[in-house]
TrEMBL record:
<dbReference type="InterPro" id="IPR016186">
    <property type="entry name" value="C-type_lectin-like/link_sf"/>
</dbReference>
<protein>
    <recommendedName>
        <fullName>C-type lectin domain-containing protein</fullName>
    </recommendedName>
</protein>
<dbReference type="InterPro" id="IPR050801">
    <property type="entry name" value="Ca-Dep_Lectins_ImmuneDev"/>
</dbReference>
<dbReference type="InterPro" id="IPR016187">
    <property type="entry name" value="CTDL_fold"/>
</dbReference>
<dbReference type="InterPro" id="IPR001304">
    <property type="entry name" value="C-type_lectin-like"/>
</dbReference>
<dbReference type="Pfam" id="PF00059">
    <property type="entry name" value="Lectin_C"/>
</dbReference>
<feature type="domain" description="C-type lectin">
    <location>
        <begin position="51"/>
        <end position="154"/>
    </location>
</feature>
Length: 166
């Protein structure tokens, strides 16, 4: 009996459309195809049209992280929807650090914006977050409630995984 489990991952994957037109359906799939606008050394997620690469920072320094992504032709990835947040949870499930640095900066009025000035409208804050103070950046952190967002110092002594989006 076919269980629909992917043998390459520990999680089940489902979708609304078959990758080849027949067979088992998948939710999450990646491709390195010449027909997409994603360089071969990066990963492309078709459902979100998301081209990315994963890196590590130790210690966390958001300025250096953004410079690194920019030097590669990208930007620090923003999580702008529940679908994107769910995808981050799936593809980063076996990450080497409990923190994932993502785009978003707190403004003086307490609102959150992306680097280009776009206001953020989707959040997945851990209860009690964000805290006030000098913690103007965002990390996704593994918690007892699952992966939740927390505000963090933009220069932090801990390590994180970060995603450059292209």
């Amino acid at each position: 009996m076919d269980t629909g489990e992917c043998v390459l991952h520990s999680n089940r994957f489902y979708s609304n459309e078959p990758p080849s037109g027949t067979g088992v359906y998948w939710k999450y799939f990646v491709a390195t195809s010449a027909t997409v606008t994603c360089p071969a050394e990066h990963t492309y997620y078709r459902q979100l049209k998301f081209c990315y690469s994963i890196h590590e920072s130790d210690p966390i320094d958001f300025t250096q992280i953004k410079t690194f992504c920019s030097s590669r032709g990208g930007e620090l990835a923003a999580v702008s929807s529940v679908e994107m947040n769910n995808y981050f949870k799936e593809f980063l499930a076996i990450r080497p650090h409990i923190r994932v640095c993502i785009a978003g900066e707190e403004q003086l009025d307490g609102s959150w914006e992306l680097e280009d000035g776009t206001s953020m409208s989707y959040f997945n804050w851990y209860p009690g977050q964000p805290e006030s103070g000098n913690q103007g950046c965002i990390v996704i952190k593994a918690t007892s409630l699952g992966d939740m967002w927390m505000d963090a110092s933009c220069a932090y002594s801990r390590s994180c995984v970060f995603v450059c989006e292209y």
